[in-house]
Amino acid sequence: MRTCDVLVVGGGPAGSSAARQLKLGGASVLVLDKERFPRLKLCAGWITPEVVRDLGMDVASYPHRFLTFERLHVHLKGLHFRLSSVQHSIRRFEFDAWLLERSGAEVVQHTVRNIRAQAGEYIVDELFRCRYLIGAGGTRCPVYRTLFRELNPRATELQTVTLEHEIEYPWKDPDCHLWFFERGLPGYSWYVPKQNGWLNVGVGGMAERIKSSRGDIRDHWSHLQQTLERSLAPGANYEPTGYSYFLRGRVEVVRRDNAFITGDAAGLATRDMAEGIGPAIRSGQRAARSILEGAAYSLQDVTGASLGGGWVSRALDWAMTRGHAPLRTPAVHSPAK
Ligand SMILES: Cc1cc2nc3c(=O)[nH]c(=O)nc-3n(C[C@H](O)[C@H](O)[C@H](O)COP(=O)(O)OP(=O)(O)OC[C@H]3O[C@@H](n4cnc5c(N)ncnc54)[C@H](O)[C@@H]3O)c2cc1C
Q: Which residues line ligand 1 (CB under 6 A)?
C-alpha cells in the first residue's frame, strides 16, 4: 500500500493548487486523478486577475494560450454595453496540465471509489493510505460523496446546467461577449476567444428553473448558435456537451477530522457569474495552509461573488438564484468517536 502525508483526490485547479502549496511546505503528497493529463475539461476558461495573482503566475513565461480582454461586451434585453474590465482567457486543456505539473507532486492515474477511515488514517481503495485527505474531485468527488454529503446536502436550486464547445476557429472579434437572460434563460451565454485561433462558446443556467418553466438548455443553445452565426462566428460547426456544477450555498462543513473539501466538490462557484476556477484555487490553497500550519480551514476569503458583491453582483445573484438563502461561514466537524 502506498503511504503519504496528504492524498489529493482530483488534479484540477483545486487539487493542483493544494498540492503545490503542500510540496512547497515539505509535505509528501500524492495526487490521484481518473484522467491522464492533459485532459478535456468543459469550461469557458475565463480567469480573473485575482486568479493570476493567487497563482503567482508570470504571464510572460506561461507557455500556452493566454488572451487578455480590456473590456467585456454585455448584451441584455437587446441592449449592448461595453464595460471596461480586464479579464483573461486560457484553455483548460493546457492550463490544468500546466498547473498540475508545476505543483511538483507525483500524480497517479486512478479512479477513486472507496474511502474508509481507520485508526486516524484514510485508506483509499485498499491501495493508498494517508493522514490527510483533500477532496478536489469536482461535482462528483468521492470524498464529498463518502464523508461530506450527509453534512452538506447540495441545494438543487443552486445547480447549474451547461452546454458548450471549444473549437479551433479563426475569430475576428478578440473580445468576450456575454448575453444575459436571453429568452428567459436564468443564466447567460458566452463567446470567449482564446489566443491563436481557438474559441469557446456555451450557455449555462439554473437547472431547476429551466426545468420548472418547461424549458430546455438545448433550445437556448440553438438560439446562441443562431446569434453567433449572424456575426461573431459564421460557419462554425459545434458538437456541444454538458456538465453540471453548483453555485455556492450554505456549505456548512468543509473539514471533517483530517478530510477537507475544496472547489466544485464543496460547491463554491460564485453566485453572480458561476465562476469556479478562482474559488477552487483559493480553497485548495487554504486547505493546504491549514494542514501545514495547523490553522483553521476557512472559506472566509474565498469569494462567493465575482463582481465584488456590489449592487450589480447582488442583482445578478438574485436573478440567478431568486434570492436563495445567503451564504454562511462553514465550520469544522469532528464527530464524536
Ligand atoms: C461549461 C462550463 C463553463 C465554465 N466556465 C467557467 C469559466 O469560464 N471560469 C470559471 O472560473 N469557471 C468556469 N466554470 C466552472 C469551473 O470549470 C469549475 O468550477 C472548476 O473546474 C472547479 O475546479 P475543481 O478543481 O474543483 O474541479 P475540476 O476542475 O472538475 O477537477 C476535478 C478533477 O477530479 C477528477 N476526478 C473526478 N472524480 C474522480 C475520481 N473518482 N477519482 C479520481 N479523480 C477524479 C477529474 O478527472 C478532474 O480532473 C465552468 C464550468 C462549466 C461546466
A: 9-15, 32-35, 41-46, 111-112, 136-138, 140-142, 162, 164, 202, 204, 243, 245, 263-265, 269, 275-278, 280
Residue 144 vs residues 80, 154, 334: alpha-carbon distances, Å: 41, 10, 15
Sequence-distant (6+) residues with CB within 8 A of 336 are: none
Tell me the Cα Rg of the chain.
20
Rounded Cα distance, 120 and 214, in Å? 49
Nearest in space to 236 (alpha carbons), one of 174, 166, 137: 166
- Residues β-bridged to residue 184: none
* DSSP states along 218-230: HHHHHHHHHHIII
For ligand 1, atom 15: residue with the closest CA = 276
**Closest residue by CA, ligand 1 atom 27:** 138
For the whole model, what pTM was predicted? 0.96
CB 85 within 8 A of CB 68: no
pLDDT tens per residue, range 253-278: 999 999 999 999 999 999 999 999 99
**How many whole angstroms from 100 Cα to the centroid of ligand 1?**
13
Backbone angles phi, psi at 202, to 5 degrees: -175, 175
pLDDT confidence band for 336 (50 / 70 / 90): very low
- Give the integer Cα–Cα distance in Å for 240 and 202: 8
Residues 6+ apart with CB under 8 A from 326: none
Q: Tell me the per-residue pLDDT of 22-43, one tens digit each, with 9 for 90 and over.
A: 999 999 999 999 999 999 999 9
